[in-house]
UniProtKB/TrEMBL annotation:
InterPro entries: Rossmann-like_a/b/a_fold, Universal_stress_UspA, UspA. PANTHER family: STRESS RESPONSE PROTEIN NHAX, UNIVERSAL STRESS PROTEIN UP12. This is Nucleotide-binding universal stress UspA family protein. Coiled coil: none annotated. It comes from the Bacteria. Belongs to the universal stress protein A family. It comes from Streptomyces pseudovenezuelae. Residues 167-190 are annotated as: Disordered. Residues 5-53, 54-123, 132-252 form the UspA domain.
Length: 254
């Protein structure tokens, strides 16, 4: 049986080290394991990179179980496959090539549209201590799964949840009816989470990017039509992948 774990893609670059550190923190916060994946044509090349990654994690988070895996495949296919049984998949923001450049251009959209679970893209500068809010961007009424993830993230961090609705969302109240199951704190021993909500009627993608300046992480859904493996990234999700000031979590929704 596979234990709950976070997956992170590395390639030996300095940029991917930041993704590794973020993934290790996510695993430690959840009390689960970390799987470090290196997608490379020749698996023999992966040994030193994976050994270095595992050593770094064990030094910083000795209580986090670490597994390394070399995969002879393309990075998108490898991480899509690895995401199937992962609690969270983590990748770095940019770089010269390989996984470090994974989220540049069309490749980032392919991965975000195909992963089978939440994807965290490490963006922005190093986190500020005064950033406490988890930000949730809503583009449609089908984002309940993304809302639930954002609520759980706020609970894990002891943070406030800020919800920003685009003008296409038909609900404007602080707690939209479609999200009541996801934003009902204080039940079954769960900690109470403060929820703040507002609606943006113009340029929602730009408003969402601006709001990420004060957030520790932003969560947004990626719509997946029934019966299809891939999905469609809305304008806000595409904009966040390239311009967010904090890490972005893309959550597949139906």
């Amino acid at each position: 049986m596979t234990l709950p774990h976070v997956v992170v893609g590395v390639d030996g670059s300095l940029v991917s080290v930041r993704a590794l550190d973020q993934a290790a923190e996510e695993a430690a916060r959840r009390g689960i394991a970390l799987r470090v994946v290196y997608a490379v044509p020749d698996r023999d090349e992966a040994g030193p990179v994976l050994a270095s990654a595992a050593s770094r994690v064990r030094q910083r988070h000795p209580n986090v179980p670490v597994e390394t895996r070399a995969v002879a495949d393309g990075v998108v296919r490898a991480l899509v496959r690895e995401s199937a049984d992962a609690v969270l998949t983590v990748v770095g923001p940019r770089g010269l090539g390989g996984l470090a450049g994974l989220v540049c251009g069309a490749v980032s959209s392919r991965l975000a549209a195909q992963v089978q679970g939440p994807l965290l893209v490490v963006r922005g500068e190093c986190p500020h201590d005064d950033r406490r809010d988890v930000l949730l961007g809503l583009e449609s009424d089908t984002s309940t799964k993304a809302a639930l993830y954002a609520l759980e993230e706020a609970e894990l961090r002891g943070a406030r949840l800020r919800v920003l609705h685009s003008r296409t969302h038909r609900h404007t109240s602080p707690e939209p009816p479609s999200l009541i199951p996801a934003t009902s704190p204080g039940q079954e021993g769960r900690p109470r989470v403060a929820v703040e909500s507002r609606t943006v009627h113009t340029a929602p993608a730009h408003a969402l990017v601006a709001a990420t300046r004060d957030a520790v992480v932003v969560v947004i859904g990626s719509h997946r039509p029934e019966g299809r493996h891939g999905g469609h990234l809305g304008p806000a999700a595409r904009t966040l992948l390239h311009h967010s000031h904090c890490p972005v979590v893309v959550v597949p929704t139906r």
